[in-house]
Structure formats: structure tokens, C-alpha cells
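SAMPLE LOG
Freezer: B-3
Tube label: C17
Construct: single chain, 339 aa
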Amino acid sequence: MKLHIETRELRMQHVWRISRDQASAKVNVFIQLEHDGVTGFGEVAPNIRYNETTDSSIEFLERAQSVLESANPWHFQDLLWQIHDLDAEQNAAKAAIDMAVLDWIGKKLEVPLYRFFGLDGGKAPVTSYSIGIDTPEKIKEKIREAEGYPILKIKLGSEDDERIMQAVREATDRTVRVDANEGWPDPRQALEKIHWLAQLNVEFVEQPLPAGRLEDVAWLRERSPLPIVADEDVHLARDISALAHAYDGINIKIMKSGGLLEALRMIHTARALGLSIMLGCMIESSLAITAAVHLSPLVDWADLDGNLLLANDPFVGAGVQDGKLILPDGPGLGVRIRE
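STRUCTURE (predicted):
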């Protein structure tokens, strides 16, 4: 398989701020894998939280090139295990190869990926629309812009949490989910905040405490009036059994898991342990978002909106109608380069 690598700057419609950083643009890495006259597409959305940068992603992809050159894409299970074994980290770069290989498979078979997995595209859930940390006035403006989305995901974990939520509830009575992005390090403070959020008709809270503190989360979960969902605490299927006692659900992201196949293993593992499942994302174009959407009929919640936050999405893929994810019918991922 021949590998082509390029980078693109993805500009945000608004400055994107969460509890630990902010950005007005992201540089993602895009790949093409060509074999036997067919090309598969993939995307890397590196995240510094997981020791990933544009440079480290490209370096990993260049290391993977020798494996890909001699690989048979039809043997994708063995191939993708080889790719995973190249490095203990750099899962976002692994995800790009995974989705490009599976895009190739779907195109060769002339079927959409969700049908290859045996899924009913009509069961795709409604996605939430994320509102980053901002001033109360900007929060209200963003909520007005997101009028067509019945579920909002509000980023908290700052000194302005109360003002933000007050602005949210002044602007809308829509369903709200909250993501603290590890922003509440004190479990007792986190519990106070969750009790307060429960009075504001919040559906659940995502990653309130810093990752790696499962016993503190378990203490919090025993007392919490709202479900608690793991994000930064969970990457791979092997992580899930250790946290099942502490969380009510997990957020699976293709970029954290290293691809669709590992995400599929995570979904089945979480189901076996009685956990609810959300599919989430980083700041990604419609290429990577669409890859995740192909698995969405299997999950309870979706937060697949990274492409919706962009001002210059370079791809066209999965659609959204009244918040509901609409899977493309084209072969493979079903994405195309925007004209």
C-alpha cells in the first residue's frame, strides 16, 4: 500500500476553550492509502494531552510506511495489530491508518462501512453540540447558533462555571450534558457541583476528576445524583474492567482508541460490563467524524460534532438532521473531498 501524508489547518468558527487549553485552529494530518487502484482516506487529530503533536504523528506514519508497503489490506486484522505494536502511544496516527484501511475495504466491496459491520444506519443517535468555555454573552450567542440541535454539551471546569450554566439556562431549556475535562480536582467540590447541576436538568457529567483517581471517582459515584462518564480515564478495551465500578459509562473516541476496530472491541466490552456508551471526538473534519458515525448505531449517546465547529471543513461526509446523525450510503467511509 502506498502512503501519502499531508497536513491541513482546520480553523474554528469560535475560539475553542476547555478547562486545560484553548485554540482558534488545529493542524490535523491527512493520509491516503492507495492499492490496486483504490484509495482509502484517514485523518489524525493529535492531542497534546496524550503526548501527540503534528510532528510526532507524521513521524509515526513514516515508521509505519515500511509495514504498509508490504501489507495485504485484505488481511487487515493482522496488519492493524502490527501497526498498534509499533508504539505504545500515538493512537491518533494509528486511527488514521485504521480508518484508511477500512475505507479501502469498503470501497473494494462497494458497501458502506456500517453495512460491512452489519449495522442499521437508521439507529444512529442524535449528536450533542458542544459549547466551549466562554463569557455568558458568547455562550448565549453560541446556543442561538446551535438552534437546530436538541442536545447541548457544555464545557465546564473553570472559575466561571456558575455564570456559564446560568447563561445556558437563561438561553435554553434543551437537554444539557456537562463535560468538566478533569477540571474539578477536589471530589467534595465536584459532588457539590454535581448536586447543583442536577437541579438544572443536566443529563450526566463527564470526567469530573483528573484521570487516574478511580477510587475518588467511585466515592463520587456512590453519592452522585447524576451518571458519571469516563473520558480521559479510558483509552482501550483493556482499561474498561478496572473502571467499571467507578463510572456509569465511557466516552469512546476513535483518536484515543487507535481506530474503529479497537473502538468496536470497547463497545462490546462496555456492554458486557453494563456500562453506557458515548462516541465522542476531538476537533476533526468530516472525514474522521464520519468514520466514527459508522459505529454510532451501537451506542447510547453521540458527541460527534467536531466538524460542526469548523469554518473550513475539507471533507463532506455524514449529515445531521435535527441533530440526528445521517450515515452516508457511499462505499467505505462514504466521504469525499469538498469542492
